[in-house]
Amino acid sequence: MMNFRRAVSLVAWLLLAVVVYSTLSPVGMRPHIGNWVQFERFSAYGALGLSFAMAYPKRRGLVLTVLLAGAAGLELLQMVLPDRHARFGDLAVKMAGTACGVCVAWLSVRYAQRFRLADSGAVRKANPDGS
């Protein structure tokens, strides 16, 4: 049986392959959800950051650094493709999505641990009388 972290890791790597394909493929072959291109970029990189940060929770800083550098690298690679273009605004949206995804992963792990501690009775109120 596949555990959660292994499943998320598989999803993260598959999502990375989709992002690389979408970024470097000819414009006509790029998948489109709608007319909200910046939302698509933000969501894709947010999901990428979230999935990698959940798959490798002890390496969130490294995940963030590598994904931000990867976003910049992929954007720069578009400069050598004849029908693609690199824009700073696109890169900013991708980096913001990545950072938000990693942050959501960090917050979810942090608060999940807090709730588990509270459920186990390890966290007690400061005032025992409830006030």
TrEMBL record:
Q: Which InterPro entries match?
A: UCP033367_VanZ
* Keyword Disulfide bond on entry: no
The UniProt transmembrane annotation reads 38-55, 62-79, 91-109
Highest taxon in the source lineage: Bacteria
- The answer to keyword Transmembrane applying to this record is yes
Q: Which UniProt keywords apply?
A: Membrane, Transmembrane, Transmembrane helix
Full protein name: VanZ-like domain-containing protein
Q: What is the lineage of its organism?
A: Bacteria, Pseudomonadati, Pseudomonadota, Alphaproteobacteria, Hyphomicrobiales
